[in-house]
Amino acid sequence: MRITVLTGAGISAESGLATFRASDGLWEQHRIEDVATPEAFARDPGLVLRFYDMRRAAAAAAQPNAAHKALARLAAHHDLTLVTQNVDDLHERAGSPRVIHMHGALNRACCAACGHRWPAPATMAVTDFCPACSRPTTRPDIVWFGEIPQHMEEIWAALQDADLFVAIGTSGNVYPAAGFAQHAGRNGADCLELNMDASSNARDFDRRILGPATRTVPDWVDSLIG
């Protein structure tokens, strides 16, 4: 069986990582949009880098939970394409062999000039040079508001070929990910949602299992692999 799984912030929340947007939508009295756009980086790169240094440290301190580990087990038994909206590396540290990060990754830096990518240091500076082209055009390898998510051709292909599409811990508010269930369903996939509450695009799913990811994901994986 070919399975495509999309994970969102809900799967990492139980590892202690807050969802991207704080409850008041602010970080150090700045709107999240003001530290997560190309315009924000051009206006105040130091502020933006400090925000991502903080997020990088939080992700490094977090540990994979039972839901991350269950998906790693699933990959050993089925043809699994694992796509995540998350920028942490908890799936990898749980043992998943390959993870498609559609919104980038906190542990990578990239060059805005030549596109080269490399492991990000714990602290990034405005004066950091690209190791490939030597230009001072380093930025976090993160998809900001207004930018195109990464690996979309590969993701659309996996959705089209899937027998089963599963969304875990996603809000259903952010496109293009919010359209994945509809696309997979049009191509014949069974669509399942695992979430604390029904998502905004709940109508696109054939069925859902509600509850915390650390319970629902292991139970679901066990039902598939025995």
From TrEMBL:
<keyword id="KW-0862">Zinc</keyword>
<feature type="binding site">
    <location>
        <position position="130"/>
    </location>
    <ligand>
        <name>Zn(2+)</name>
    </ligand>
</feature>
<feature type="binding site">
    <location>
        <position position="52"/>
    </location>
    <ligand>
        <name>substrate</name>
    </ligand>
</feature>
<dbReference type="InterPro" id="IPR050134">
    <property type="entry name" value="NAD-dep_sirtuin_deacylases"/>
</dbReference>
<dbReference type="InterPro" id="IPR026591">
    <property type="entry name" value="Sirtuin_cat_small_dom_sf"/>
</dbReference>
<feature type="binding site">
    <location>
        <begin position="169"/>
        <end position="171"/>
    </location>
    <ligand>
        <name>NAD(+)</name>
    </ligand>
</feature>
<keyword id="KW-0520">NAD</keyword>
<feature type="binding site">
    <location>
        <begin position="8"/>
        <end position="27"/>
    </location>
    <ligand>
        <name>NAD(+)</name>
    </ligand>
</feature>
<keyword id="KW-0012">Acyltransferase</keyword>
<feature type="active site" description="Proton acceptor">
    <location>
        <position position="103"/>
    </location>
</feature>
<dbReference type="InterPro" id="IPR003000">
    <property type="entry name" value="Sirtuin"/>
</dbReference>
<dbReference type="GO" id="GO:0034979">
    <property type="term" value="F:NAD-dependent protein lysine deacetylase activity"/>
</dbReference>
<dbReference type="InterPro" id="IPR026590">
    <property type="entry name" value="Ssirtuin_cat_dom"/>
</dbReference>
<feature type="binding site">
    <location>
        <begin position="195"/>
        <end position="197"/>
    </location>
    <ligand>
        <name>NAD(+)</name>
    </ligand>
</feature>
<feature type="binding site">
    <location>
        <position position="55"/>
    </location>
    <ligand>
        <name>substrate</name>
    </ligand>
</feature>
<comment type="function">
    <text>NAD-dependent lysine deacetylase and desuccinylase that specifically removes acetyl and succinyl groups on target proteins. Modulates the activities of several proteins which are inactive in their acylated form.</text>
</comment>
<comment type="similarity">
    <text>Belongs to the sirtuin family. Class III subfamily.</text>
</comment>
<dbReference type="InterPro" id="IPR027546">
    <property type="entry name" value="Sirtuin_class_III"/>
</dbReference>
<feature type="binding site">
    <location>
        <position position="213"/>
    </location>
    <ligand>
        <name>NAD(+)</name>
    </ligand>
</feature>
<dbReference type="InterPro" id="IPR029035">
    <property type="entry name" value="DHS-like_NAD/FAD-binding_dom"/>
</dbReference>
<keyword id="KW-0963">Cytoplasm</keyword>
<feature type="binding site">
    <location>
        <begin position="85"/>
        <end position="88"/>
    </location>
    <ligand>
        <name>NAD(+)</name>
    </ligand>
</feature>
<dbReference type="Pfam" id="PF02146">
    <property type="entry name" value="SIR2"/>
</dbReference>
<feature type="binding site">
    <location>
        <position position="114"/>
    </location>
    <ligand>
        <name>Zn(2+)</name>
    </ligand>
</feature>
<keyword id="KW-0479">Metal-binding</keyword>
<feature type="binding site">
    <location>
        <position position="133"/>
    </location>
    <ligand>
        <name>Zn(2+)</name>
    </ligand>
</feature>
<keyword id="KW-0808">Transferase</keyword>
<protein>
    <recommendedName>
        <fullName>NAD-dependent protein deacylase</fullName>
        <ecNumber>2.3.1.286</ecNumber>
    </recommendedName>
</protein>
<feature type="binding site">
    <location>
        <position position="111"/>
    </location>
    <ligand>
        <name>Zn(2+)</name>
    </ligand>
</feature>
<feature type="domain" description="Deacetylase sirtuin-type">
    <location>
        <begin position="1"/>
        <end position="226"/>
    </location>
</feature>
